[in-house]
């Protein structure tokens, strides 16, 4: 990007969430190529962007269907023309009327469940419904959150409640979210294999018990990028890969230069004796996510870059109030004085801050500013709420 | 609140941000009474709620004017009929056209500055503007963020740039935000006095130099509630007191029963062997704010309560993914197994989670559900973005 082409970043109000469209498209293309090579379908998780423009780019690259984390996402993306949607948070029966309304309007919305109570509620609900539901069973392959482990009796119990109750069991899915805690290719590849094998095993147990189970869906950004084989898997899900972030950098699945989301900010003051530069990106813009604090490299509230995206090595956003960020040089992890901060970063200077966690930072903004390689900026709106 | 009156909480989608209107009005009344007794005006900071209904209650209780942290708040509250507005983040000249547009439409918007560079920019801007601006100077009384310390030469330098340049210096303001790090009445009262004395001293230095300085504005929720005298102060600002939260509980300025904001959530599953209850309030609902992690009592991602608001002692939201929260019993700070979680919290159970930081949690929601003591629920919308 040439200096002329980033001049548009001087013309908009700050803070603003900037998407580097070139980087984003490259991230999307790389993941899709990888999935194609592994012979599986790819169903991106749209909770990261909650943005129709981003998801259209994923579908144009070859994605088949989407994954959502809220019914609002399902409703919004269905309104934008997408029909093959997986709602990947275990359902509670009180949400079924909203699910059914989407199905009746032609949305091929799949729901998931990981317990007998909700499965029984689904069967009960379907008895008086005039449109069938499709349910996938959530499998726990790494102990980090929800799901039924592959060998548990509950797996077949839930499958039988649904199947015998006349509800279609469409598949099994798992999410090895503990991959975010790893940082070597070996460990990631091992977890990807654990995720694959566990989910395939769960599908096999269901099939052996006479319960159809067509789909085997796995994924997280790190395991998707580390998997060496995906035998038995039919589709992969991942979300944050479209933008990447500093947490993913520390996990080892992207470089700093792959990160496509940044927060545009303006210098509003200094505390010269402390070497502090005060910027208008506080936690309301960056989010309170401190995901790198437990990783090998702590990026504070974010990595400052110049306007053209070059990281300012040795500087971090070391603190954040609601609308104030504190940017300072860091020396061996401690803030250090810097006599020259006023001269180096005068009031009005614009910078870009790479976020710890793209899903959390994006959520702070009603819209993205999509920066094309030509310098053109387009507003891409995103959803908020449930 | 009787069981009948909280039945409305069974009828709305979760997660939802619930305001206990009775508690909120009590918090607002207590603060206003305190400010009246101390003989100062009160200008609430509306960044906490970003909600016209909440701010109307503050004004009805006696507040005079509002404080905002973004120009979007200024524009939104001006559109709702409020005119006396202080934009309390140091201005950069690139924002002045937006400020001027509000002034021209009749908004008595005051801006603040803490450096010579921006002050010179304001003077330059005003030379060709057809409407005057009013500027307050930000004073640093506790070293936690922005502002000029009371004895610094820069204070008079900035004052002279503005005054000699024909721009009205309307006052000085300070915010002792380091009060959030304290937890005894003695320390809070001492910081309140430091905040008062420093800001009054800055005003005096300006006046002694022939620069008018009518307003002396101080405040943070903890110092406002701890101040024993406010001689020389003309107004106080505070924000989070309207809702309070677990951080303020740990600071010692409210009880658990004063907290007026909670997140309504539904149990969606369990990991029985770990004693985990999975709920649909993850960090997207609670925010990533872990403000109590450095305090004397760490509340994890929040304090679970029953639907009527009774805290479930011994339970915390110990973890959070984007749309999943992990609720568990805690024993001496460590999660402990609980054989009975499925029986105690069946799938579909609704709970309320008190947040660490009301400003951060509120920001995750497009609207509040205002719960009256009658059980009536009203939707109060809130602003998002800049």
TrEMBL record, chains A, B:
Query: SMART domains in the record, alphabetically?
Result: D-ser_dehydrat
A single MF term (Gene Ontology)? D-serine ammonia-lyase activity
Name the cofactor(s) required for activity, per the record.
pyridoxal 5'-phosphate; Zn(2+)
The D-serine dehydratase-like domain extends over 260-372
Ordered alphabetically, the record's keywords are: Lyase, Metal-binding, Pyridoxal phosphate, Zinc
Q: Which InterPro entries match?
A: Ala_racemase_N, D-amino_acid_metab_enzyme, D-ser_dehydrat-like_dom, D-ser_dehydrat-like_sf, PLP-binding_barrel
Q: Name one GO biological process term.
A: D-serine catabolic process
Cite the SUPFAM superfamilies for this sequence.
PLP-binding barrel
- Protein family: Belongs to the DSD1 family.
> How is this protein named in the record?
D-serine deaminase-like pyridoxal phosphate-dependent protein
Instruction: Provide the species name.
Output: Paraburkholderia rhizosphaerae
């Amino acid at each position: 990007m040439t200096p002329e082409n980033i001049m548009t970043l001087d013309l908009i109000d700050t803070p603003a969430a900037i998407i580097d469209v070139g980087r984003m498209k490259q991230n999307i293309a790389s993941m899709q190529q990888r999935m194609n090579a592994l012979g599986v379908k790819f169903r991106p998780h749209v909770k990261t962007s909650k943005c129709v423009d981003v998801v259209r780019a994923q579908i144009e690259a070859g994605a088949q269907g989407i994954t959502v984390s809220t019914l609002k996402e399902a409703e919004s993306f269905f309104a934008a023309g997408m029909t093959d949607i997986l709602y990947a948070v275990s359902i509670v029966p009180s949400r079924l009327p909203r699910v059914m309304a989407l199905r009746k309007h032609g949305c091929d919305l799949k729901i998931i469940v990981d317990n007998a109570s909700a499965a029984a509620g689904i069967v009960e609900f379907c008895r008086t419904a005039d449109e069938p539901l499709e349910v996938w069973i959530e499998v726990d392959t790494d102990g980090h959150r929800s799901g039924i482990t592959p060998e548990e009796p509950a797996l077949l119990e839930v499958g039988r409640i649904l199947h015998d109750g006349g509800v279609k069991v469409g598949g099994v899915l798992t999410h090895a979210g503990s991959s975010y805690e790893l940082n070597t290719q070996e460990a990631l590849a091992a977890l990807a294999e654990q995720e694959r094998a566990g989910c395939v095993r769960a599908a096999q147990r269901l099939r052996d018990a006479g319960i159809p189970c067509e789909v085997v869906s796995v994924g997280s950004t790190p395991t998707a990028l580390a998997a060496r084989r995906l035998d038995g898997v039919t589709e992969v899900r991942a979300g944050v890969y479209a933008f990447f972030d500093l947490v993913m950098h520390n996990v080892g699945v992207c470089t700093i230069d792959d990160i496509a989301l940044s927060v545009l900010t303006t210098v509003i003051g200094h505390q010269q004796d402390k070497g502090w530069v005060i910027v208008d990106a506080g936690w309301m813009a960056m989010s309170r996510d401190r995901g790198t604090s437990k990783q090998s490299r702590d990026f504070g509230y974010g990595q400052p870059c110049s306007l053209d995206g070059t990281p300012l090595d040795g500087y971090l956003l070391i603190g954040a109030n609601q609308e104030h960020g504190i940017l300072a040089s860091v020396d061996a992890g401690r803030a250090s004085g810097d006599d020259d901060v006023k001269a180096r970063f005068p009031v009005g200077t614009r910078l870009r801050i790479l976020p710890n966690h793209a899903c959390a930072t994006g959520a702070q903004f009603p819209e993205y500013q999509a920066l094309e390689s030509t310098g053109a900026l387009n507003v891409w709106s995103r959803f908020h709420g449930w």
